[in-house]
C-alpha cells in the first residue's frame, strides 16, 4: 500500500474514534464560491440549536475561514492545551482555523499537502464531546481541500448549495458527482438567493443527482448586511428563520 494512503486510513480511523460522540456529521458544499455555503452552514447550525439540538459548527475552509466573522466571534481558541475546545456562541460550538492563527485577516498561501495536514490535525485534535449535529462548512473546488475532508471525515452526507444561476447549478452537479464518486450521500439541495422566477436550475440539479430540494432561501439584502456585522439572520428575521427551520426539519 502507498505510504501516504495508509496515513490517510490511519488518520481517518483516529478521527472517527475522536468524533464518535457526534450523531450526524453533515457537510455543506458546492464547488463554486460565493453561493452561500457559509451562510447556509451558520444559519442552519443556529436554527438546529434553536430547535433544541446540541450542535457544532466546523469551519473546514482553510483558505477563507469565514465562519467566525459570520458568527461574530473575535476570540481565539486556547491552543496551549490539547485537545482544542470549540468556543460556544448562540448555543453552537464553533471551531475554525481562523480562531487559532495569529492574524485571521492574513492570507493562507499553502500547497495542498500542507492544507491536508492542517485539516487532519485540526479534526484529530478538537474535542466536540457529544453532539446531535456537526455542520461542516466546506471550501469550494473539487480538488485538494474538499477531497481531504471527504476522505478524512465519516459523514452522514452533504447538503449542496446552489443559486438560480445556471453556472451555480452546473457546478453543484459537479460537486454532487464528486461526493457520490467518493461514496458519500447527497442529502439534498438548497437553492440560495432564490427569487420568484427561480427554481428551474435547482430542479436541474435535483434531477441530475436524483436528490430532493430541501428548501429555498430567498435573496434578501438583509442577509448580507447582517452577516457583515457578525449578526445571524435567523436570529434577527422571522422569515429567514422559517426558511431555515423548514430545511432543518427535513434533515432532522
Ligand atoms: N440569500 C441571500 N441573500 C442575500 N445575500 C446573501 C444570501 N446568501 C448569502 N449572501 C451573501 O453572499 C455572500 C457570499 O455568501 P457566503 O455564504 O460567504 O458564500 P460561500 O461560503 O459559498 O462563498 C456573502 O456576502 C453573504 O452575506
Ligand atoms: Mg464560505
Q: Write down the CATH class.
A: Alpha Beta
Structurally, the number of domains stands at 1
Structural class designation:
alpha/beta
- Multimer state: single chain
Main pleated-sheet profile: 8 strands, mixed
Main sheet: strand order: 3-4-2-5-1-6-7-8
Tell me the β content: 15-25%
CATH H-level name... which superfamily? P-loop containing nucleotide triphosphate hydrolases
Number of helices: 10
Over all CA atoms, what is the radius of gyration?
Answer: 17 Å
Distance between the termini: 39 Å
The succession of helices and strands, N to C, reads HEHEHEEHEHEHEHEHHH
Question: Can you walk through the features of this model?
Answer:
The chain has 252 residues and is of the alpha/beta class. It has a single domain (3-251), classed as 3-Layer(aba) Sandwich (Rossmann fold). It has ten helices and eight strands. Strands 3-4-2-5-1-6-7-8 form an eight-stranded mixed sheet, with helices on both faces. The longest helix is centred in the first third of the chain and has 16 residues, at 3-18. Bound molecules: adenosine-5'-diphosphate and magnesium ion (MG). Adenosine-5'-diphosphate is lined by residues 33-39, 66, 192-193, 217, 219-221, 223-224, 227.
Amino acid at each position: 500500500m502507498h505510504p501516504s494512503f495508509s496515513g490517510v486510513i490511519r488518520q481517518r480511523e483516529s478521527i472517527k474514534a475522536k468524533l464518535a460522540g457526534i450523531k450526524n456529521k453533515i457537510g455543506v458544499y458546492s464547488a463554486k464560491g460565493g453561493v452561500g455555503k457559509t451562510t447556509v452552514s451558520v444559519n442552519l447550525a443556529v436554527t438546529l440549536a434553536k430547535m433544541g439540538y446540541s450542535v457544532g459548527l466546523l469551519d473546514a475552509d482553510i483558505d477563507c475561514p469565514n465562519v467566525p466573522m459570520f458568527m461574530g466571534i473575535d476570540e481565539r481558541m486556547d491552543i496551549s492545551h490539547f485537545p482544542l475546545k470549540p468556543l460556544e456562541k448562540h448555543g453552537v460550538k464553533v471551531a475554525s482555523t481562523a480562531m487559532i492563527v495569529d492574524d485571521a485577516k492574513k492570507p493562507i498561501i499553502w500547497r495542498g499537502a500542507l492544507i491536508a495536514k492542517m485539516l487532519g490535525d485540526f479534526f484529530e485534535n478538537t474535542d466536540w464531546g457529544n453532539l446531535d449535529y456537526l455542520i461542516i462548512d466546506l471550501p469550494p473546488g473539487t480538488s485538494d481541500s474538499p477531497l481531504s475532508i471527504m476522505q478524512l471525515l465519516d459523514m452522514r452526507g452533504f447538503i449542496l448549495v446552489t443559486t438560480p444561476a445556471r453556472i451555480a447549478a452546473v457546478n453543484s452537479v459537479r460537486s454532487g458527482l464528486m461526493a457520490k464518486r467518493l461514496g458519500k450521500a447527497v442529502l439534498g439541495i438548497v437553492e440560495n438567493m432564490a427569487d420568484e422566477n427561480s427554481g428551474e436550475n435547482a430542479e436541474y440539479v435535483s434531477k441530475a443527482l436524483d436528490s430532493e430540494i430541501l428548501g429555498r432561501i430567498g435573496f434578501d439584502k438583509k442577509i448580507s448586511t447582517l452577516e457583515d456585522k457578525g449578526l445571524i439572520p435567523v436570529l434577527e428575521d422571522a422569515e429567514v428563520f422559517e426558511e431555515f427551520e423548514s430545511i432543518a426539519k427535513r434533515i432532522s
